[in-house]
């Protein structure tokens, strides 16, 4: 009788671990090159960030951006109201990474939990972008300037992508990086302020 109970407990434990390992909660990540808003909050560079300071890897929202996904004004938080501080433009005062138009750049993600991946995509704001207002799709070039397909593979814990920043940009702009998960309905979002 004792063996049957032990076997049942072990079986239940394995089933629970399997369920936890396949859900969307098992995949998390954020960009730190260029430094994302959530990374600045996590390292204390920016204060009054709310919960994101402890969970920079958790900006998860619906996938399918830009035709689907988070609504306008909630893009940087992935549509997740827990992290609404990321959508606050702070008067345009978010720290920005210095870049140059047409520059070759290495983009980097830190993945605290890896997952089967469709792709990574990078979008840049356009000439109408106002860094003092919440981000909308009208502020973005809706064609990504860099797409890295993954075909369902699981990426490493640190992922780098080499790309070229679009030419013709000046002033403060915003890069929206999207990590699309292959086997859930979600993606991870990271907004990085940059100064051309």
UniProtKB/TrEMBL annotation:
CDD domains attached to this UniProt entry: LPMO_AA10
**Signal sequence segment:** 1-21
SUPFAM superfamilies per UniProt: E set domains
Alphabetically ordered keywords of this record: Signal
What ranges does the record give for the region Disordered, renumbered to this chain? 58-92
Source taxon at top rank: Bacteria
On whether Signal is a keyword of this UniProt record, the answer is yes
Which InterPro entries does this one have?
Cellulose/chitin-bd_N (IPR004302), GlcNAc_Chitin_IntDeg (IPR051024), Ig_E-set (IPR014756)
In Swiss-Prot or TrEMBL terms, this protein is called: Chitin-binding protein
Q: Which organism is it from?
A: Streptomyces olivoverticillatus
């Amino acid at each position: 009788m004792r063996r049957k109970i032990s076997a049942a407990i072990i079986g239940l434990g394995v089933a629970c671990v399997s369920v936890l390992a396949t859900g969307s909660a098992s995949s998390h990540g954020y960009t730190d090159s260029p430094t994302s808003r959530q990374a600045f909050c996590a390292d204390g560079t920016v204060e009054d960030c709310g919960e994101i300071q402890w969970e920079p890897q958790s900006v998860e929202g619906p996938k399918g951006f830009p035709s689907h996904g988070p609504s306008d004004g909630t893009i940087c938080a992935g549509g997740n109201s827990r992290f609404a501080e990321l959508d606050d433009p702070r008067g345009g005062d978010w720290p920005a990474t210095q870049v140059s138009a047409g520059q070759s750049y290495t983009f980097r993600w830190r993945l605290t939990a890896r997952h089967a991946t469709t792709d990574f995509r990078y979008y840049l704001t356009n000439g109408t972008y106002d860094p003092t207002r919440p981000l909308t799709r009208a502020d973005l070039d809706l064609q990504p300037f860099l797409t890295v397909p993954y075909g369902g593979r699981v990426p490493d814990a640190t992922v780098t992508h080499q790309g070229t920043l679009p030419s013709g940009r000046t002033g403060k702009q915003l890069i929206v990086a999207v990590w699309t998960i292959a086997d859930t309905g979600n993606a991870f979002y990271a907004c990085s302020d940059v100064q051309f």
